[in-house]
Amino acid sequence: MIPAQFDYVTPATLNEALALLAEHQDDAKILAGGHSLIPAMKLRLAMPQMLIDIGRIKDLAYINEEGSQLRIGAMTTHYQIESSARLKDLCPILPQAASTIGDVQVRNKGTIGGSLAHADPAADWPAVMLALQADIVVVGSSGERLIKADDFFVDMLTTALEPGEILREVRINIPTGNFGQAYAKAAQPASGFAVVGVAAHLTRDANGNCESASIGVTGVASKAYRATGVECALVGTTLDDAAIASAASHAADGVDLNGDLYASADYRRHLIQVYVRRAIAAAQQ
Amino acid sequence: MKIEGTQEVRAPRERVFQALLDPEVLQRCIPGCEKLEQTGDHAYAATLRAGVGSIKGVFTGQIKLEELQPPSHYRIVIDGKGQPGFLKGTGTLDLEEKDGQTMVSYAGDAQIGGTIAGVGQRMIQGAARMMVAQFFAAIEVEANHDPDEEPPKHGFVRTALRVTKRALQGSNAADQSAAEDVEGERKK
């Protein structure tokens, strides 16, 4: 439980952090809240030679409204999101999902940017970002670029972040119209990670029919994914129980499910359907 | 842990089998393989820097190929250990010809122990799948490569990222084809 030796630097600005990252490249890791990286380092599963702590950089933790968008800084902790009254009004799935992450200690230190950049296949935020069709803003030496959540998660622990880039912000369109959203999760009792996590964002048209559906699933495969089969099956329906059940049967279509000691692939296949149904039902309330 | 699956490799069966037996090719294709030295008849000593994302470990061990039946079958025996844990396993590879392409069926059973098994249990299967997919993608490139030319380079994660980048930069139509490329990369 003692990490290998490493250097530790605390840049005061994002530009300084980028310069350090460019200089040390693969030997360096960005430290955000440290609730995935530090445990891995203590077990010596990760042995970076340098940690670049971006926790001292001002103005990376914020929840702002800009026009029709919400902008959440990378260093915003899960707890800051969980406890934001404004988010509870504007986009309730964010505080709700945040409240299910790990335990109080993890939520108090862990950050949304760190979680997304680490891309743990059982982390909660990826499902929520997919369901909200968020844009992820990353910055590198050649400037800033926007990555759609759909393109951000490449594979297990692998994102579209290039070496030398730092995740800076998450942008989410403030939901409008008659919408409902919810995150439903079967948590691993020891770690709190999702065995299955489903984020649902639905809108209804003037007649009360489902106008659009966006469903993100985490915990079951090597990366979080959009359950497009479920989304297609929901649109146009009245979102009655039969429609939801029939749509939920497509939740794992075309996805290679992972199994482990705790939950086999078949068990997960069953759980996804149950949690897709629950997330959709909760989103309607 | 059981690992099994079928992988389509777009190259003739003889070439694929040849590639799967050539230690130099294997070293280039096994993700993170730093050393593969012949120690006997189809026996090798290997050093592997394996892992995904920030989670990495160095493994050293022996690899043996048995039951060689060119060009359709062999059995592989792996025994390795490293700082994050140990790995023992056997697997079989069966190659079938299909319309000038090769279907490789693999089935194996691996025992994994140590730190990595204790805390990384939930990720082992996904990581193994990822490495198998990367391996066969590289084998396909090798089997289609002219042996007289300089050997190809495989940038595993880079390949996935390049495809994603293309999807990000392109128009909608390009998005579509790049998305299919990503799909193709995975199926490889």
Fraction in helix of chain A: 25-40%
CATH topology of the largest domain in chain A: Uridine Diphospho-n-acetylenolpyruvylglucosamine Reductase, domain 3
The overall strand count of chain A is 14
Which radius of gyration of chain B do the C-alpha atoms yield? 17 Å
Helix share bin of chain B: 25-40%
Please name the CATH architecture of the largest domain in chain B: 2-Layer Sandwich
Assigned CATH class of the largest domain in chain A: Alpha Beta
Query: Beta-strand percentage of chain A?
Result: 25-35%
Greatest interface and its residue counts? A-B, 35 and 29 residues
Biggest sheet, spatial arrangement of strands of chain B: 1-7-6-5-4-3-2
Largest sheet of chain A: 5 strands, antiparallel
* Outline of chain B: globular
Number of strands of chain B: 7
Total domains of chain A: 3
What is the CATH class designation of the largest domain in chain B? Alpha Beta
- CA(first)-CA(last) distance of chain A: 45 Å
Low-confidence stretches of chain A: none
